[in-house]
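Quick start: what a row looks like.
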Amino acid sequence: MNCLVTAGPTFEPLDEVRRLTNFSTGKLGTELASFLTARGHKVTLLIGESATYRGERNVQSVKAFSTTADLRAKLKSFSGKKVDAIFHAAAVSDFAFGKVFAEKKPGEFAALKTSKKISTRQGALLVELLPTPKIIAELRGWFPQTKIVGWKFEADGKRADAIRDAQKQLADCATDFCVANGPAYGNGFGLVARDAQKHFPAAEKLFVALETIF
């Protein structure tokens, strides 16, 4: 099986020295990629530059990505090639920076011009946050014959809410499976299909299941 695995966070720049990112370590995706390689599959790992996990990357190919746009471009570059499965575990930033406003006088803000480094002498700032495009929603168009597994990490709610959100991702993005995890789901992982779901208490058991469904 020829696989793509994404892992770790994207980031979005505020200026040339500051960025917005998330706490994803890249551990789960990296370990999944190494597991699949050990089972004899050909794996390309797309890993965020900001990933903090430093475990071994025992795969045939590793490519680093930076921003959401960069990850999107790298994934799209594989369209038209033989890809049997995509495991999209990367934590794509939900927001990018829009306009930045500086306080000129109490309660009055004006937009700043683009700057290599926004000076702290500007004082209080207001920053516009814009939703980033959902890469997973584009994967089916690029890879019409590929089996696609998405991830749904939810912090709020209960397990039923996390599973419902995973099912919504399946319907909205035409993916084949979704892994639900995070504080809302609780311990372990849920592997969600359109008409069924199964719980796995540990990552290793999830990995075995992910391999056998293809």
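That is the whole record. The chain has five helices and 13 strands. The chain has two domains: 2-93+134-212, 96-130.
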